[in-house]
Amino acid sequence: MVRKLVVLYNFTMARQTGNHDAKRIEIAEAAGKAILKTGLERTSLNDIARELGYTTGVLRHYFQDKEELLQFTKNHLFDQMFLRMKAAAENEQGISR
Predict the structure, then answer these.
(1) What torsion, rounded to 10 degrees, do the Cα atoms 59, 61, 63, 69 define?
(2) What's the gap between Cα 48 and its chain centre?
(3) How far is residue 26's CA from residue 51's CA, in Å, rounded to a whole number?
(4) Residues 80 and 86: beta-carbon distance below 8 Å
(5) 58: number of Cβ within 10 Å
(6) What's the predicted TM-score (pTM) here?
(7) HSE, side-chain direction, 13 A CA sphere, residue 85
(8) Cβ–Cβ < 8 Å for 65, 54
């Protein structure tokens, strides 16, 4: 019985972690859009939350503060850019975006 609970707990935690990470990425992408609209200095958590239709409380569930959110956003967007450049180089195509 205990073993079944441990397996169920591990499966549930893995699924929640995946959802948590996916939500952080969704928020980071919305932050990038908001920053493009209003600029880095003028973008608030309210702007980012509005982009998603969320409250700032939801953002604070996933990030401690604006600084952590912006750091994660920068890293995520850089990673995406790097993957696109790598794929373009591997396909021997120019960067078309």
Answers:
(1) -10
(2) 12
(3) 11
(4) no
(5) 14
(6) 0.72
(7) 6
(8) no
State the Cα–Cα distance between residues 28 and 49, nearest whole angstrom: 11
Tokens describing residue 69? 């959110």
E strand residue ranges, the chain: none
pLDDT digits (tens, 9 = 90+) for 18-44: 799 999 999 999 999 999 999 999 999
Measured between its terminal Cα atoms, the distance across the chain in Å is 54
Q: C-alpha angle with apex 17: 12 to 20, nearest 5 degrees? A: 125
Higher pLDDT, residue 16 or 39: 39
- Report which secondary-structure segment, H or E, holds 35: helix 2-38
Q: Quote the pLDDT of residue 69.
A: 96
Confidence of residue 87 (pLDDT cuts 50, 70, 90): confident
Residue written as token pair 């995946």: 18
Q: CB pairs under 8 A, 24+ apart, for 9-12?
A: none
